[in-house]
Structures are given as structure tokens and as C-alpha cells.
Automatic annotation (TrEMBL):
<dbReference type="InterPro" id="IPR018101">
    <property type="entry name" value="Transl_elong_Ts_CS"/>
</dbReference>
<dbReference type="InterPro" id="IPR001816">
    <property type="entry name" value="Transl_elong_EFTs/EF1B"/>
</dbReference>
<dbReference type="GO" id="GO:0003746">
    <property type="term" value="F:translation elongation factor activity"/>
</dbReference>
<dbReference type="InterPro" id="IPR036402">
    <property type="entry name" value="EF-Ts_dimer_sf"/>
</dbReference>
<dbReference type="Pfam" id="PF00889">
    <property type="entry name" value="EF_TS"/>
</dbReference>
<protein>
    <recommendedName>
        <fullName>Elongation factor Ts</fullName>
    </recommendedName>
</protein>
<comment type="similarity">
    <text>Belongs to the EF-Ts family.</text>
</comment>
<keyword id="KW-0963">Cytoplasm</keyword>
<dbReference type="InterPro" id="IPR009060">
    <property type="entry name" value="UBA-like_sf"/>
</dbReference>
<dbReference type="InterPro" id="IPR014039">
    <property type="entry name" value="Transl_elong_EFTs/EF1B_dimer"/>
</dbReference>
<feature type="domain" description="Translation elongation factor EFTs/EF1B dimerisation">
    <location>
        <begin position="74"/>
        <end position="276"/>
    </location>
</feature>
<keyword id="KW-0648">Protein biosynthesis</keyword>
<comment type="function">
    <text>Associates with the EF-Tu.GDP complex and induces the exchange of GDP to GTP. It remains bound to the aminoacyl-tRNA.EF-Tu.GTP complex up to the GTP hydrolysis stage on the ribosome.</text>
</comment>
<keyword id="KW-0251">Elongation factor</keyword>
């Protein structure tokens, strides 16, 4: 049995970032073999990942990156189980690594992002699993979004748990920094389901019509009037739940569509991505 020194433990800590006692235990189990000890620590992370797979992840951090030309944005959310872990430096560094990897790899899906190779040749998921072993709770990339447009604006809420990308077109020579941020903040606050009514899926439309009919029927309205009443309620739903038709939260005398058009004639939103950890 190899003698495990404090220097050996510190060396493994520097290599893996794991705790002192975990490193000492792994080196003892591996009889001083550093690579074997690293494998043991990785397996420890996987055991925690398996054990806590069903645990809720309601804390974490959302990060955003917009390309220098302002046409492409990346939005990622790394979640954990508890608020203290979300504030740990290693967790924050991992979240930045997730975002950097998203930008570098230009992954098409979350699965592609997790499989992206890092500088040491291992996947991003392996790095996440390693930190699970060190921290002792579930970590998960719960969202990954990409948006490309003529101009992409972004916003991260003050709690760092909500973020938005919004795509604008027909921006002309307008400075979109302020209006883009305002629209992105609107999306965080008001949670629109689509850009405009044409973007609302048919299942949602049918559900809202049926709800409108049932409400009118419960109020004793004649059957012949139900469809018309339901359509009126549907139009109200569009006004309250589609971005361009919503009243601007900073000035309810204008809609988002009117706000954009006032900034530059014809300016509008092409798409948006909203991410939240909750």
C-alpha cells in the first residue's frame, strides 16, 4: 500500500478540484495511482448524478451572449438544487463554460451542447458530472436557446434566473439598444406565448374558444351567441398574451408593435426566446 502524502492530496485537488478528504480517499483506494484516483472521483460524480436524477433544480443562473455583429444570440441556463450552490465560484465558472462552449461549438441542440468536446478532450456533460461529485447535488443544463435575426437584443433579469433573446427586423439606422432591452424586459415580465396571433398554436386557440363558450354558457348566454362571445374573448387573449399586441409595461398607451414602429417605421419582432429557472 502506497503512502499517501499531503502533497499527493494537494496535487489531486489541483487536478480535479475535488475536496481534500475525497482526494485522500480516492488516492488511498487507487493505491497512489493518480489517473485511477481521478476515475474514482468521476465515478463518484456519476453516482451522485444517478442518485439525485429525480431531484428538482429550482436554483441556478442564466447567461447570455450576443455576437459582435449583433445578429446571433445564445442563451443558457445551468440549474442546481439549492441557492447557496448557485453562488459557489465553481458553479459560476461551470455556467460560463457552458455558455462559452455553446458559442464555440454553435451546437444545434442541448444534446449536441452537452456532447461538445472541451479543451481536455472530455465532453461538457463529463465536466458537469465531475462538479456534481464535488458539490454533492444535481446540476443540469435546463435550457439552451439560439436566435438569429437582423438585430438580436438580450436581457438578464436581476435575479439571474430569467433571460430573453429577441430578434428584430427593419431596424434601419435606429439605435436599438434601449428599445431592444425594453422589449426583452417586457417578455420576461409578461410571458407572451407568441410574437403575434399567427404564432399561437391551433390547440391553444381551440382551448381558448372552448373556455370562452363555457364561460358564456355559465353566464346564461344564448347558444346562438356563444361563438361570437368566444371569438371576442379570444381576441382579448391575443391582446394580453401575444407580444406585439401587449400594452407596453412602461407606457400602456402604446402596444409593443406601436413602440417599435415609432422607433423606426416598420420595425418589428421576428422571434423571441425566454428562459427561466423556477
Amino acid at each position: 500500500m502506497a503512502a499517501i502524502t499531503a502533497q499527493d492530496v494537494n496535487k489531486l485537488r489541483a487536478m480535479t478540484g475535488a475536496g481534500m478528504m475525497d482526494c485522500k480517499k480516492a488516492l488511498t483506494e487507487a493505491d497512489g495511482d493518480f489517473e485511477a484516483a481521478r476515475d474514482i472521483l468521476r465515478k463518484q460524480g456519476q453516482k451522485i448524478a444517478d442518485k439525485r436524477a429525480e431531484n428538482a433544480t429550482a436554483e441556478g443562473v442564466v447567461l447570455v451572449s450576443v455576437s459582435e455583429d449583433g445578429t446571433t444570440g445564445k442563451l443558457v441556463a445551468l440549474a442546481c438544487e439549492t441557492e447557496p450552490v448557485a453562488k459557489v465560484e465553481d458553479f459560476r465558472k461551470l455556467a460560463q463554460q457552458v455558455l462559452d462552449s455553446a458559442v464555440k461549438s454553435d451546437a444545434g441542440t442541448k444534446e449536441d451542447l452537452l456532447a461538445a468536446k472541451q479543451e481536455d478532450g472530455r465532453s461538457l456533460q463529463e465536466h458537469i458530472t465531475d462538479l456534481m461529485g464535488k458539490i454533492g447535488e444535481k446540476l443540469d443544463v435546463v435550457a439552451y436557446e439560439t436566435l438569429t435575426a437582423e438585430k438580436v437584443a438580450s436581457y438578464i433579469h436581476s435575479d439571474n434566473k430569467k433571460g430573453v433573446l429577441v430578434g428584430l427586423k427593419n431596424v434601419g439606422d435606429a439605435n436599438t439598444n434601449e428599445v431592444g432591452r425594453d422589449v426583452a424586459m417586457q417578455i420576461v415580465a409578461m410571458k407572451p406565448v407568441a410574437v403575434d396571433k399567427d404564432g399561437v398554436d391551433s390547440a391553444t386557440v381551440e382551448r381558448e374558444i372552448e373556455i370562452g363558450k363555457e364561460q358564456a354558457r355559465a353566464e346564461g348566454k344564448p347558444e346562438a351567441m356563444l361563438e361570437k362571445i368566444a371569438q371576442g374573448k379570444l381576441n382579448k387573449f391575443y391582446k394580453e398574451n401575444t407580444l406585439l399586441n401587449q400594452e407596453f409595461v412602461k407606457d400602456n398607451s402604446v402596444t409593443i408593435a406601436q413602440l417599435l414602429d415609432k422607433t423606426n417605421k416598420g420595425m418589428t419582432v421576428t422571434d423571441f426566446k425566454r428562459v427561466a429557472i423556477a
